[in-house]
Structures are given as C-alpha cells and as structure tokens.
Amino acid sequence: MSKVLENFDNIVLDVLKEVGNIGAGNAATALAKMISKKVDMKVPQVNVLDFSEVPEILGGPEKEVVGIFFKLEGELEGSIMFVLDTFSAEQLIELLMPGIASNGFNEFCFSALQEIGNILAGSYISSLSSLSNLDIKISVPSLALDMAGAILSVPAIHFGLIGDKILIIENEFVEMIEHDSVNGFFILIPEVDSYDVLLRSLGVQI
C-alpha cells in the first residue's frame, strides 16, 4: 500500500489542490475556445475522499449522470472520469450545439459530450504532465448514461483492490453572455504506485 494512500497530510492535499486548480483553469480556457464565448470558473472544490463517499457528492447513487471515462497511460497509470448530471450535460451540449438536445439525448449528443470530455480531460492531463514533467497519455473516451452508483461501479471494483482514496475536483463553469452554468466533477484515480510517482515528480517528500 502506498504511503500516500495511507496518510494524505496537509502538504500532499495542498499540492493536489494546486494541480486541480491549474487543471480547472486550463479546462475553462479550453471550453471557452470550444464554444467561442467567454467562460468564467468558480474556484474549484478539491477534495480527497473515500471512494464510497463519491455517489453522495454526485447527488446520490440513484442520481442519473453522464460519465466519460479515460484510461491514463505512460509514466502515470490509472484513470480519470468526467461526471456531470443530465441537466448540466444538456446545458453543455446547448452551449456547443444549440437545439441539438431539445428532444433528449441522441447519438449526436453523446458524440458531442465525448468530444467535450476529451478536450476538458486533455486540458487537465496536459496541465498535470507539464507540472510533473511526466509523460501521461489518455485513452479514447468511453461514455455511459446511468445512475451514479452504476457509473462508478467499474472503477470502484478495480480501485477497491488497491486502496480507497481518490482525488475529486468539482468545477462550475459559467458562460458569461447567457449565464448558463455547468457543474461537473473530475475524478482522478491513479494506480496505487502512481501516487508516489506523481508526488515525487511534484517535489513532495513522501
């Protein structure tokens, strides 16, 4: 078991929060470019939680959400998920492609969400890679629309084998012209040994 997983002290949490803040800022910039509109971002909430607590943060295990999942590969291994409730997903699609989600989710909506998730997650991982000087790649995204408990079941089963702590970053993006708000969560789940690799690369003594 990683020493980091056993004890997230304040220094480690502060470093992870800074990574989350920088990644969130870059994601907001990427979203603004994507929709060609000014986007503001509220200060992201960054927490290290027990995996079992995550469904409640998302609105409860029966809350319907969209989950976009990526594998992390290279010098940092694990996974990252971008999760948002269906209302926020519709708002995000509307900002990018007005009217497309007027009759509910369809193939075009899912394709748009995958592309949005790919760009936002890519912004996070690019920030993390630059800060840590680690070579990190993400896989092609996979998307699911389901209850929060079901969306999280696959990484929960996998992660339960190696630990129970994850980094979750809550972002609220506000499109400044029409004041539409999108609330989403990035869930970073490094493999157990990758926590040590990541924090050493960021200058944290563990």
Kindly summarize this structure in a few lines.
The chain is 45% helix and 29% strand.
Can you characterise this structure?
- With 206 residues, the chain is of the alpha+beta class.
- 45% of the residues lie in helices and 29% in strands.
- It is built from eight helices and eight strands, in the order ααββαββααββααββα.
- Strands 1, 2, 3, 4, 5, 6, 7 and 8 form an eight-stranded antiparallel sheet that branches.
- α2 (10-35) packs across α5.
- The longest helix is centred in the first third of the chain and has 26 residues, at 10-35.
Set out the fold topology:
Blueprint: H1 3-6, H2 10-35, E1 39-41, E2 45-50, H3 54-57, E3 64-74, E4 78-85, H4 86-96, H5 107-132, E5 136-138, E6 142-147, H6 148-151, H7 153-159, E7 165-175, E8 180-190, H8 192-201
Antiparallel strand pairs: 1-7, 2-7, 3-4, 3-5, 3-6, 4-8, 7-8
Essential attributes:
alpha+beta, Chemotaxis protein chec, 8-stranded antiparallel β-sheet, 29% strand, 206 residues, single chain, globular
Q: CATH superfamily name?
A: CheC-like
Q: Tell me the name of the CATH class.
A: Alpha Beta
Domain count, please report it: 1
C-alpha end-to-end distance: 13 Å
Strand percentage lies at 25-35%
Write the CATH architecture name: 3-Layer(aba) Sandwich
Low-confidence stretches: none
Largest sheet: 8 strands, antiparallel
Helix content: 40-55%
Q: What is the helix tally? A: 8
The CATH topology corresponds to Chemotaxis protein chec
User: Which overall shape is indicated by the principal axes computed on the Cα atoms?
Assistant: globular
Number of strands: 8
Structural category: alpha+beta
The run of helices and strands is HHEEHEEHHEEHHEEH
